[in-house]
Amino acid sequence: MPYHIAPEAVIDATLYTLLVFSLITWTLIFFKIWQFAKNNYYNKQYNNAFWDATDLKAAEQLPPETARGPKARVAACGFAWLAEMTHPETCTSLKFRGSPQDLLEQTLRKQTQDEQRRMESGLTMLASIGSTAPFVGLFGTVLGIMHAMHDISASGSASLDVVAGPIGDALIATAIGIAVAVPAVLAYNFFQRRAKHHRASLENFVEGFLHIAFGDSNINTSKNKD
């Protein structure tokens, strides 16, 4: 005898799946709000302290409560590279072959990419939920309608009272799928824009750091402030 899965069980499974999607979505939304707010605060705090410093040495010695956040980590990476560059026993290695400014820029860009990956973490999940949740709900609706049609056929009556109830219940899954998808899509678009702004801010900071590190006297440090 072949094994049959009850339609009600499959429909319930789709609803529970949508519930899990919703929990993941709102967890990510609250986490990303906290993450962006925290890093924005840290970046502004460090950015102001960095450009108020008299030179790179003073900027490197900023207190730990100020040197926090993505910009501080990018700067720390640059400070570490500059310190290593001054040691004769290390600056002869292959990683120091080439233009010092290009090598420092490469180091800072790599750290910037690492920071950007942190800020974009979770966005793929939001995009996936936003694109798949309606189809999961539609799948539940199709199964619900098939089950309703089977019951209607078995009852031998096709009156509106008999048809409307089961069909209406089946459409609930689609409505829930859309309700789950909308916040995920809106959150993805919002955080994607914030991530682009964050990346631009880091890139501006890297440009300013490079100019200061190599003594470009024409740079106007005030324009690097956010």
From TrEMBL:
Subcellular location(s) of the protein: Cell membrane; Membrane
Domain MotA/TolQ/ExbB proton channel: 97-203
Coiled-coil stretches noted in the UniProt entry, renumbered to this chain: none
Cited Pfam families: MotA_ExbB
Keywords: Cell membrane, Membrane, Protein transport, Transmembrane, Transmembrane helix, Transport
Source organism, top-level taxon: Bacteria
Transmembrane segments: 15-34, 126-150, 170-191
Recorded topology in the membrane: Multi-pass membrane protein
Family listed: Belongs to the exbB/tolQ family.
Name of the protein described by the UniProt record: MotA/TolQ/ExbB proton channel family protein
Native source organism of the sequence: Methylomonas defluvii
